[in-house]
Amino acid sequence: MTATVRLPHRTAPLLLGALLVVCLGYQAYRYPFQINSALTSPTYSDTPAWLQYTKWGLVALIAVGLALLAARGVRAALRSMSRVRAVALVLQLVLMLSTLLRIAAGAASVEPWIMLLVVGTAFLVTLTPVVSGRAADLITRILVVYAVVCVVAEIVQVALFLWADRLPALAYANSPSVRFGSVLDDPNGFAVVLAALIPTTWIAMRARPNLRLVVTVALLCCLPLSQSWTGVTGTVAALGLTYLFTRGIRRDLRRAIALVTSAFVVVGVAAFFARSTITELIRLKQGSVESHAQSFSHIAPPSTPEPTMSRSASPSLAASAPAPVEPVPPHGHAAGQLITATWIPRIESGYINLFANYGPLLLIAYISLGVIAVLLLLRGRTGLPLALRAGGASYLICFLLASANLGLDRTFPCNVLYFFFCGLAFAASLPSRGEAVVDRRPSLARTVLIGGRRLVPPTRHAGPRAHEASQQ
Question: Which residues are CB-neighbours of 226 under 8 A, at least 6 positions away?
Answer without folding.
Answer: 179, 180, 181, 187, 188, 190, 191, 232
